[in-house]
Here is the input.
Amino acid sequence: MTATTTHEPRTPAPGGGDGEPVLRLRGVGKEFFGNSVLRDIDLDVRAGDVHALVGENGAGKSTLMKIIAGVHRPDGGTIELDGQVTTFSSPLAAQHAGVSTVFQEFNLLPERSVAENVYLGREPRRGGLVDRRRMNDDTDRLLADLGLSSLAATQRVGSLSVAQQQVVEIVKAVSYDARIISMDEPTAALADQEVELLYELVRRLSGRGVAILYVSHRLKEIFDLCDTITVLKDGNHVLTTPTVDIDPDGLVRTMVGREFAGYFPDKDAAVVPGDVRLALEGVGNGQVDDVTLAVRAGEIVALAGLQGSGRTEVAHGIFGIDAFTRGRVLVGGRPVDVRSPRQAVRAGLALVTEDRKAEGLALGQSILATRGSSSTPSCRGPPTAGHAGSRASCPRSSSSRARRRRRSSSCRAATSRRWSWRSGSSPTRRSSSSTSRRAASTSGPSAPCTTSCAS
Here is the structure.
């Protein structure tokens, strides 16, 4: 399979691509514990441009984004803003300089309103008290300027869709009078129909002269939105080119450093699905009705459908979060009555949740404790302080154990997904389900799906 994404050249924003860069990096490098992760990076970002930053995992994209955001300080090279050499001592310093970053993991308070999130920590005051009327009016004005009529300043963030929460993050960035906004995989958690909302917002910001640094693995977005593409590989700058001068196949070759035959391996004809491990027979509850399916050993079954069609609800029913009230669930040919996640785990079922942070991980605990909480037989120990039993029963080296004692909340999104999966997996697990708004694909958007796997 080749990257056959088709695209029309994007019309540059007024003023985009002309004049001096608003942000310029020269020879930027970064090391962590003697390991060089960025080497001699040059980057020019111009007002009104949507500039893609692409590369394989580990290419250095996130580190470069964090340097621009003021999270990390470079070990070498210079950063210029409007032609003046500068150094951002913190993310707040970068924001005040007009450089904002929208990270993949949201930083929002779900129980607060849109306005309270946008102006968190810098609320307008009157007579020593928060001036809520002014804060709400200013937020509504920002939303109106960006054409976001579907949002209101007083709406509670926890009631918004993931796409709308992403928009709130962007509005918060704009509220700092940002001239440069970096977006780290902004569509990673969005369903296909939600992506257009982000497209419209990016185009509107670009048209106003805001420079956008856009990180994504999805080629369709790159060619739909971006004027310029910079490719990183193994911490090195490989290529910067106008989008119109490269095609998807050429971009993939540049990213991986070789001809790329396909995004997914061919199916192994020798692998034949085995016995039925999970079967649903006419199951239903308050969200879904009359669902029948079977998952065999070694088989992957995808539940595809639009947002709200019931994909996630089926997975939650299987795992006992919203238990089925009718029909039958069979695991290994035996009927089971799963009324809670605990019962699901005992029956040999696992679930990788859609929202890893809110539902899949215990962020206040170490990775070791989170893994041990899955009742995995090989790592189970008494519920004592420090989980000594878990550490003693796991064949880990002392250095490996130390790494796993890091708090789950400090992990990157991809790492969190891996640990969410591992904490729900064990050698005895019969069936696993994972829920996502959008299937991961380099070649473009695909149907939202829930994947059930039997082992």
User: Anything to note?
Assistant: Residues 192-207 form the longest helix (16 residues).
